[in-house]
Structures are given as C-alpha cells and as structure tokens.
Specification:
With about 280 residues, the protein is an all-alpha fold. It contains 13 helices and no strands. The protein is about 75% helix and about 0% strand. The protein starts with 13 loop residues before the first helix and ends with a helix. About 30% of the residues are buried.
Length: about 280
C-alpha cells in the first residue's frame, strides 16, 4: 500500500481530475458508439490513452511534488506536458472521435463553438504557433517569472496548463493527419521547417542553463530540494533536459513527417497540382 501513495495527487485539483476524466470518458463512449469502420485501431487507442495518462501522471501524482522541489524534475514534467504527451495524442489521430461528437451536437451547440474555432484558426497560423510554442518555454523559464510561478499555486497551475494546451496545438499542427494535397492542412515542407526552427531556440536556452555560472533558479534554494542533490547538478540536469530531448523530438518529428510525405507521394497527383506549393 505504501507504493500507492505515489499515485495520489500531491496538490489535488478537482478541475484537473474532472478534465482528464471527461476526455477519457468522451473518448471511450465514442469508441463504443462509433461505426466499426470509423473506429481507431488498438494501436491508436493505446497511444492516445498513454499520452493522456502521462500528462495526468506528471500533474496529479507524487511526480508533481518532486517537480516543485527539483529543477530537473520540473523540466521533465514540462518535457512531457509540452512534448511527449501531446506528440502521442496527436499521433493517435483522435480526429474521427472529434468528428463523431461534432455530429452529435445540435446547431445551437455548434454555434457556441464558432468563437473557439476562430481562435483555433488564428493560433494555428504557422508563425503564431511556432512563436507561441517557443515563447512559452522562454516565458516560464525567465528567472523572475519562474520564481513567482513556483511560489504561487494559481500561477503554477496556469503555467502547467498553458504548456499542455500549447503543446497539443503545436503538435496537432505538425501531425495533422489530413493530406495537404486535398485539404487546407499545412504542407509537409512547412511542417519540417517549423520543427527545425523551434528546435534552435530551445537548444540555445538549454545550453545557456547548462553553461551558466552560479544559480539561475534560486527558488529551489528558497523552498528546499526534495533530495540532497548539489544545486549545480540539479541545474545541469535541468539544462540538459531543456537542451537535448526537445531537439531529438524535433528530429523524430521530421522523420515522421518525411515518412508521411514519401508514403503519400504520387497518391493525389491531380489534387497536388491544384494545391500548388502548399506541400
């Protein structure tokens, strides 16, 4: 039973718990009610659930405690919320499930979604999406802002939720399953360019943390660390997690997009010629 306490929330948030339960509940009900030919396969279902549960785990288990008292664990938390979890969710392609629920909505309910759709289209503009993706990392790691966020419960939750939602938006733009040849989805070449561009500033930030002299994030000195680790080691590991894994995920993303582009090449020649330079 002592091991179960690590699965219990350190800082319980009813809103967070209900949000994850709602997402998994709607996904599960849709799977049961969808036509079999539209239903995602087992691999996609597992990928979606794994991505959701990873994000839940770093927000509502004992992991969250360590992320508040160790800088490198905090960077691991944001690596999952901003990268790994959203990547798995986007790769699972929940679009058929989303379409199922949209068809179930009444016209009045759909009208309420129009402002959300407008905001979504604005945020999915490539320049805005990439600036927001990198900008949020820099914003929350700006030492004065980071200090306040780690000491304020409300600001801490805003930080984590903003990283998760922004990660979902960006990686969905990258791994949008719709073909650029026959839809208005972002072209594969532009997706690869975005992945390369967002990797550079993340690498620079991580390198700056690694090679900084002195303590950059002294909030962990004020609050105390969960483990008796030298502050320099904690900062070094946190900088490496900011530097290397995000760059590697950009490389993996580029390879996935390239594979999709090569697999699709020649499938829609007529549509591709009409689409012009979109791909």
């Amino acid at each position: 039973m002592s091991g179960l306490r690590y699965l219990l929330p350190y800082d319980f948030s009813p809103l967070t718990l209900l949000s994850y339960m709602l997402v998994l509940g709607l996904y599960g009900v849709a799977l049961l009610r969808m036509p079999e030919n539209e239903r995602p396969g087992p691999g996609r279902i597992v990928t979606f659930v794994l991505g959701v549960m990873l994000c839940y785990g770093v927000m509502q288990t004992r992991f969250d405690y360590y992320s508040q008292y160790m800088f490198f664990v905090h960077r691991g938390q944001h690596l999952i919320l901003h990268h790994l979890g959203p990547v798995l969710i986007a790769l699972s392609n929940p679009l058929p499930v989303m379409r199922f629920w949209y068809r179930q909505m009444s016209p009045s309910m759909r009208s309420w979604l129009r402002p959300i759709g407008w905001a979504y289209r604005v945020l999915q503009q490539p320049a805005i999406a990439s600036i927001l993706f990198v900008g949020l990392i820099y914003f929350w790691l700006w030492p004065p802002i980071h200090f306040d966020a780690m000491l304020s419960r409300q600001l801490y939750w805003v930080m984590n939720w903003s990283m998760l939602l922004d990660g979902l938006l960006f990686w969905w733009l990258i791994f949008d399953p719709r073909s650029p040849a026959i839809t208005n989805a972002l072209g594969y070449g532009k997706r690869i360019l975005l992945l390369a561009l967002v990797a550079i500033p993340q690498m620079i930030l991580g390198a700056w943390i690694v090679f900084s002299r002195g303590m950059v994030y002294d909030v962990y000195e004020v609050c105390g660390r969960a483990w008796p680790m030298p502050p320099e080691t904690d900062q070094l590991l946190g900088g490496l997690l900011t530097w290397i894994p995000p760059a590697m995920m950009s490389i993996v993303g580029i390879l996935i997009v390239l594979r999709r582009a090569m697999h699709e090449d020649g499938k829609f020649p007529k549509a591709r010629s009409l689409a012009g330079g979109n791909a």
